[in-house]
Amino acid sequence: MTALIELKDITKTFLTEEIETRALNSINITINKGEYLSLSGQSGCGKSTLLSLLGLLDSPTSGSYLINNVDVSSLSRDQRAKIRSEQIGFVFQSFNLISDLTIFENVMLPLTYQSGFSKKEIAEKVHDVLAKVEMSHRKDHFPSQLSGGQQQRVAVARALVNDPAIILADEPTGNLDSKNAQAVLALFDKLHQDGATICMVTHDPISAKRASRCLEMFDGRLIADNLNTPSHQKLASSVAAIELVAS
Ligand SMILES: Nc1ncnc2c1ncn2[C@@H]1O[C@H](COP(=O)(O)OP(=O)(O)O)[C@@H](O)[C@H]1O
Ligand SMILES: [Mg+2]
Questions:
Q1: Looking at the DSSP assignment, which residues form a beta bridge with residue 12?
Q2: Which residues pair with 58 in a beta bridge?
Q3: pLDDT per position as a tens digit, 31-41
Q4: φ and ψ at 109, to 5 degrees?
Q5: pTM to 2 decimals?
Q6: Quick check: helix, strand or coil at residue 40?
């Protein structure tokens, strides 16, 4: 297996009004290419902070972070932004689409931060990822014209368009009803089968079990790191499907 990401002894401390919060405490994780990780734990345990560090939105107080063997733990803001735009795809709980851009324009946005793509290449890439999430027919609509589930699928397309090394999703189904949540989780299952590396924060134990590896945090620490068998993953998808029919 090839290591994509290596976190070594990562800590993150926030200082606000003389109160010190240690949000992450001695975190060690190696993420291999093609893994689908779930990250769970109670509110305030540090999940979002860890995802922000993984996504280079912030840097650790101490420790080292290697992505594709490059140390990114102490880069400048601009250097982090460059690597982020090339290697990271984000999906947020609240979709974060831009309301006055069309679906097509929203999805193409990450590509406009990178130079070197022709108009034709951009159109092809956007077309491909919209097809992957089954939203091509809505490309000229605006976000407010779509359901929450559709907006989240567009957000996944936007995360995929620059062909990132890893997709980071923070409670991606948190704002969705169960039917739309299942559609987004099924999309993640498919992306994983196609080889994507994914790290998803979720508080739902059944959703967590769909991942190939389940991480659990408590109070800034990693307290569990378990590989999940394919049969357990299948079972979790089936349970979700049965619950959906029953609801
Ligand atoms: N920007 C920040 N400034 C100060 N404290 C923060 C900040 N972000 C997170 N924290 C604190 O760090 C801890 C972990 O937060 P977070 O990562 O958001 O938890 P989770 O996503 O698991 O709910 C919490 O105690 C939170 O209050
Ligand atoms: Mg959070």
A1: 24
A2: none
A3: 999 999 999 99
A4: -50, -50
A5: 0.94
A6: strand
Does 89 score more than 90 pLDDT? yes
Q: How many domains does the chain have?
A: 1
pLDDT of residue 64: 97
Closest CA to 226 of 195, 205, 197, 247: 205
Report how far apart, in Å, the C-alpha atoms of 191 and of each of 12, 13, 79, 176, 187 are.
31, 34, 28, 19, 6
Q: Domain of 232?
A: 3-246
42 falls in which pLDDT band (50, 70, 90)?
Answer: very high
- pLDDT of residue 114 exceeding 90, the answer is no
Looking only at the bridges linking them, the beta strands covering 19-32 and 198-201 are: unpaired
Here the tokens at position 244 are 């959906």
Measured CA to CA, the distance from residue 35 to residue 129 in angstroms comes to: 20
Complete DSSP assignment for 98-133: -TTS-HHHHHHHHHHTSS---HHHHHHHHHHHHHHT
Residues contacting ligand 1 via CB (< 6 Å) = 14, 16, 21, 23, 41, 43-49
Q: State the ligand closest to the CA atom of 49.
A: 1
> In angstroms, what is the span from residue 50 Cα to ligand 1's centroid?
10
Provide the CATH number for the domain around residue 34: 3.40.50.300
Tell me the CA–centroid distance for residue 118 and ligand 2, in Å.
Answer: 37
Q: Residue 238's Cα: distance from chain center in Å?
A: 23
Asked if pLDDT for residue 1 goes beyond 80, the answer is no
Q: How far is the CA of 55 from the centre of ligand 2 (A)?
A: 14
